[in-house]
Amino acid sequence: MTQTESRPALVELSGVSKNYGNVRALEGVSLDVHAGEITCVLGDNGAGKSTLIKIIAGLHQHDGGTLSLDGEETRLSSPREALDRGIATVYQDLAVVPLMPVWRNFFLGSEPRKGVAPFKRMDVDHMRRTTHAELLRMGIDLRDVDQPIGTLSGGERQCVAIARAVHFGAKVLVLDEPTAALGVKQSGVVLKYVAAARDQGLGVVLITHNPHHAYLVGDRFVLLKRGTMVGNHEREDITLDELTRQMAGGNELDDLRHELERR
Amino acid sequence: MSAAQVKDADADERILHASPLRKLLGRPELGSVVGAIAVFVFFAFFADSFLRASSLSTVLYAASTIGIMAVPVALLMIGGEFDLSAGVLVTSSALVSSMFSYQMTANVWVGVGVSLLVTLAIGAFNGFMLTRTKLPSFIITLGTFLMLTGMNLGFTKLIDGTVSTKTIADMEGFDSAREVFASTITVGGVGFKVTILWWLALVAVASWILLRTRAGNWIFAVGGNKDAARAVGVPVTKTKIGLYMGVGLGAWISGQHLLFSYDVVQSGEGVGNELIYIIAAVIGGCLITGGYGSAVGSAVGALIFGMTSKGIVFAEWNPDWFKFFLGAMLLLATLLNAWVRKRAEATK
Question: What is the C-alpha to C-alpha distance for residues B279 and A72, in angstroms, rounded to an integer?
Answer without folding.
Answer: 56
